[in-house]
Amino acid sequence: MNDDRLTGLLAALRTERMERTADQKLRARLENAWTAREDRSGLAWRIRRPVLAIATTALVVGLAATTLSAPGDSPLYSLRVTIEDLAIPLHRDPEDRAEYLVSLLEQRTSEAARLEATGNALAAGRARDIERQTLRMVQQNLPVAPDAVDAAPTDSPSPSPTPSPTAPPSVVPPTPTDAATPTATQRPPTQRPTTAPPATLTPTPTPKPTTTATPQAISFTGTVKNPDGTYATNVCVSFNVSGPCSTVTTSSTFRVTFSGKIGQTVTLYFLRTDGIKTYRAYVTKTITSTYVDVGIVMLRVQ
Question: How far is CA 137 from CA 142, 214, 258, in A?
C-alpha cells in the first residue's frame, strides 16, 4: 500500500458509515500500515545518517591529507603553507616551536631545490619566496646567540733601556812628520758606467670579495652530567651567565635551537640548583654546521 492510496482511503472514511466490526478491522489495518511506514523510514534514516557522517569525515580527511602532502608545483601548496603556519601558535613550548620551525624551513628549502632541479622556474620562484618568509619567521622566533667574547690580553710593562757609560775622549799627541817629498801623481783610472738590472714588476693581487654569512637556524645538542658522573636534569641552559633560560632540560640530554652564523663562536652556560648547592658549567663552540654536538658537559659546584 503506497502513500497516495492510504491518503485516499483515509479521506473516504469521512463520509462512509461502516459497521463497528468492519470499522475496527479497517482502522487496525490502517494503523499497522502507518506504523510500518514510520518504521521503514526511521530505519532508512538511521542507516543513512552514519553513512553520510562517515563519507563526510573520509572526504575531509582525504582532502586534508592531499593538502598537507601537496608538492610545490601543486595549486594546493599555498593552502598547505597557510595551514602549517597556522599551526605554529599551537606549539606552546619554545623548544617545540623552534624544532617545528626548523623542520618547516628544511622541508621548504628541499622542496625549492627539487623544483629548481626539475626546471620548473615559476614554481621554484614561489617556493623560494616561501622559504625566505619561513627564514624570517625562524629568525623572529629563535633567540640570537651572542658572540663569545675572550678576555683582552694585558700588556706587561717593558723595562726601559739603561744608558751605558761612555768613555772620555782620549787625546792623541801630534806625531812629527818629515818634510813632504814631492811625488808623481798618478792619473785616476777612468770608471766605466754600470748598468742597473731591469726592475721586476710584481703583479698586484686582486682582492677577493668578502662574503657575509647569513643567519640561519643552528642547533646545539649534548649531555649534562653532575660532578659524580650521574645524569643531570632540570638544568637551565642560557647564552649569558645571568641571562634567561633558553631551555630547561627534562632529561640528561639538551637541545638548544637559535639563530646563528657559520663561523660564529658561541658560549652556552649551564646552571642547576638543588636548594643547597649551585652547579655551573659553560662550553664554547664554533659553529661549523647547522647541527653541533658539544659532547658531555660536566657541572661543577660553585
Answer: 8, 15, 12
Query: H or E stretch including 33?
Result: helix 20-68
pTM over 0.70: no
Q: Per residue in 192-203, is it b (16+ CB within 10 Å) or e — as a string? A: eeeeeeeeeeee
The three three-digit cell numbers of residue 73, written as one number:
608545483
What span, in angstroms and rounded, lies between the C-alpha atoms of 283 and 292? Answer: 12
CA pseudo-torsion sign 47, 49, 54, 59: positive
Distance CA 32, CA 36 (A): 6
Q: Identity (one letter) of the amino acid at 27? A: R
The contacts of residue 246 (CB under 8 Å, 6+ apart) are 94, 143, 237, 238, 239, 256, 258
Q: Of 271, 275, 267, which is closest to residue 234 (Cα–Cα)?
A: 271
* Domain that residue 128 falls in: 77-141
Structural domain count of the chain? 3
CATH number at residue 246: 2.60.40.10
234-276: pLDDT as tens digits: 999 999 888 788 888 888 888 888 888 889 999 999 999 988 8
Cα–Cα–Cα angle for 74, 80, 84, rounded to 5 degrees? 155
Sequential DSSP letters for 120-148? -HHHHHHHHHHHHHHHHHHHHHSPBPPPP
Same-domain check for residues 91 and 16: no
Domain boundary pick from 66, 88, 111: 66
